[in-house]
């Protein structure tokens, strides 16, 4: 079914397209200042994300990489006439999981717990102060390959260089999504290609894009230092991000406040 035509959708992470203005220094994302959120129409139908909805991540450094996900805990998407008109969802930062390390409570050198605790610390997410992140839709457009392109930035080459935006992006994108991503107390508007589908009472949205973590104040191990690059002592600023969202119809909305 054809959805999202002529709608506005705003996203979290400024990522990979040069078709919209406001590029950040990351080179492979469109990042700009916070924008006004889209509003639902009075006849909109609400869709609620399912428990398996998540945002995935891959973080890299010259000597290795880790991957995991952050669960989506709540949210709502409004659809009218087969089109998404507005919506938002919340991510539980304290629920972050690491997929490539096993959790062994009997191991005092448990790397899973060490990395989790470090990611929760002020070096990264500062989860005690900012336990959640939020994405709020501002605009949705149909994806047009003739006018919308994905451009990656040059990366410092090592064995574990992050995948470029062109290599990592979702296959067969249907829409160009923009939204306000709030993380660690900072809000930026981001735009990226996504594949969206609606069948019956179920809506799915998938996206894969790159962001520059320093745009949201995650500065630990910043790769800016040439000296650190020479010693391979840095963490790439580029993070591979994926959105895997499934939502089911909840109820009709007679009036949206």
Order of helices and strands: EEEEEEEHEHEEEHE
Looking at this structure, what is the CATH superfamily? Lipid/polyisoprenoid-binding, YceI-like
Uncertain segments: 1-29
How many structural domains can be distinguished in the coordinates? 1
Mean of pLDDT: 81
CATH structural fold name:
Lipocalin
Q: What would you call the structural class?
A: mainly beta
User: How big is the Rg?
Assistant: 18 Å
Number of helices: 3
How does the major sheet shape up? 12 strands, antiparallel
Percent in helix: under 10%
Number of strands: 12
Beta-strand proportion? 35-45%
Distance between the termini: 28 Å
CATH architecture: Beta Barrel
> In CATH, what is the class?
Mainly Beta
Globally, the shape reads: globular
Organism: Mangrovivirga cuniculi
Pfam families: YceI
Domain Lipid/polyisoprenoid-binding YceI-like: 46-248
InterPro entries: Lipid/polyisoprenoid-bd_YceI, TTHA0802/YceI-like_sf
List the defining traits of the structure above.
single chain; 257 residues; 7% helix; Lipocalin
General description of the model:
This is YceI family protein. It holds the Pfam family YceI. This protein is mainly beta. The protein has one domain: Lipid/polyisoprenoid-binding, YceI-like (Lipocalin, Beta Barrel), CATH 2.40.128. The chain has three helices and twelve strands. Strands 1, 2, 3, 4, 5, 6, 7, 8, 9, 10, 11 and 12 form a twelve-stranded antiparallel beta sheet that branches.
């Amino acid at each position: 079914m054809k959805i999202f035509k002529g709608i506005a959708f705003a996203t979290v992470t400024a990522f990979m397209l040069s078709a919209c203005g406001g590029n950040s220094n990351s080179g492979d994302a469109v990042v700009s200042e916070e924008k006004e959120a889209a509003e639902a129409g009075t006849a909109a139908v609400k869709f609620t994300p399912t428990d398996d909805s998540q945002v995935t991540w891959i973080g890299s450094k010259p000597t290795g990489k880790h991957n995991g996900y952050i669960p989506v805990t709540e949210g709502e998407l409004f659809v009218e006439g087969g089109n998404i008109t507005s919506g938002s969802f919340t991510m539980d930062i304290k629920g972050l999981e690491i997929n490539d390390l096993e959790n062994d409570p009997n191991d005092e050198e448990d790397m899973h717990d060490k990395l989790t605790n470090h990611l929760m610390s002020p070096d990264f997410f500062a989860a005690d102060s900012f336990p959640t992140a939020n994405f709020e839709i501002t605009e949705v457009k149909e994806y047009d390959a003739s006018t919308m392109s994905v451009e990656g930035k040059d990366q410092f080459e090592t064995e574990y260089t992050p995948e470029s935006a062109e290599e990592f992006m979702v296959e067969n994108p249907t829409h160009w999504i923009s939204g306000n991503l709030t993380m660690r107390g900072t809000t930026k508007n981001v735009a990226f290609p996504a594949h969206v589908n609606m069948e019956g009472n179920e809506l799915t949205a998938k996206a894969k894009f790159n962001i520059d973590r320093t745009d949201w104040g995650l500065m630990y191990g910043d790769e800016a230092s040439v000296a650190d690059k020479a010693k391979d002592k840095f963490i790439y600023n580029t993070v591979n991000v994926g959105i895997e969202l499934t939502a089911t119809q909840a109820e009709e909305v007679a009036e949206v406040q």
